[in-house]
Every structure is written in structure tokens, then in C-alpha cells.
Amino acid sequence: MLTKVHTGLEPVQGNWWKPAHKAEKVWVAIAFGWCLVLFAMMPLWHWKGGQNPSGVRTRVDPKAFYARTAEFARQYRVGSDRGLPIVQPPPGADVYLTAMTFQWYPILQLVRGQRYRLHISSLDNNHGFSLYPLNVNFQIVPGYDYALEVTPTASGDFRIICNEFCGIGHHTMVGRVIVLDSAGREIARSGEVR
Ligand code: CUA
User: Fold this and answer.
1) Whole-model pTM?
2) Ligand 1 atom, smallest distance to 99 CA
3) Residue 50: its pLDDT value, please?
């Protein structure tokens, strides 16, 4: 037995051509109105909500940025942890952090309450910067230097988790930020070679 096949030459069954019910029109109008509200929220949130870091963004050569980061790490190195330098820049300094498959270079050591200009970029592909357990979330794109004005408000030993899938070692891409207390004292931590 042949199955009835619908072609574009004949109209489909049903009553789709009849005007929409009043309730449907009301719902469409409500949804459209809500879309406009959310659309207006985007710029509003940017200027009023304080959720978007309004940093300076400039184009940068990824290799040059990494070279600058290495120079920064050599200049202010105070120790090391599993081969990665621990770097403590003076307050107010420009701080450099490079994301690469699959690590964050170097380990930053900052002082609570001091202001820094944090430059972040990537050497290879897209990575995601999220500072655990704080609510800081940022996308890192190669070729761009994101300079963020940061003032650590909590001391502790924090982890940078990559939250953008970047390859086979994505889940191992964990970095470290140490924030000393406002007197510059170290906090208790373990598993580190100095
Ligand atoms: Cu880097 Cu995922």
C-alpha cells in the first residue's frame, strides 16, 4: 500500500490559515515586549550594573605578549611552585598573565586592598578565565590584551579555572592567584616549593 506523501503542490491539512486567536496575539505581544525590556537591559547593565569589566582593550601580538609576561615574571619573581614562578609585583604595577594550552603563566601574588592593572591574553586559542571561588568570569581571546583594573578584596589562595573548552587538556588548565593580607603577610598554604 502506498503511503500518502505530502508535496508542496497541495495545501497542508488543518486550519493554520485562519487568523490567530486573540489569546495568541496577546502572548506574542507580551513576549515581544519582554524581548525589548531584555534588550534595553544589556546597555543598562553595562553602565549601571557594574557587571561588565570596562577595561582597556588593545590588539597585541600573542608572542610579544608572552615575551612581556616572561619579562614581568623574571623581574618580580619571589618563588616557584612546581616549575611555575610565583610573581609578586609592587602595588600599582602592571601585571601580566598569559593563558596557553594548558596552563596559566605565571602564578600571581598580590596584596589585598592594593590596586593593579591586570593584563590578560592568550598565546594560542580561546580560554576562559574564572577565578574560583569568586564570581569573576572572563573570556580570553588571543591577539587582544584585556587590561583590567583590579583591587583584591579578599586574601587567600585562589584557583583560575579555564571555563572555555580549549582541547584535550582543558580540564587540567588550573592556575593560581595568591592574595596576601593587607599587611603583606603570607597566608597558610601547603604543597608548595619555595
Ligand atoms: Cu584553556 Cu580550557
Assistant:
1) 0.72
2) 1
3) 64
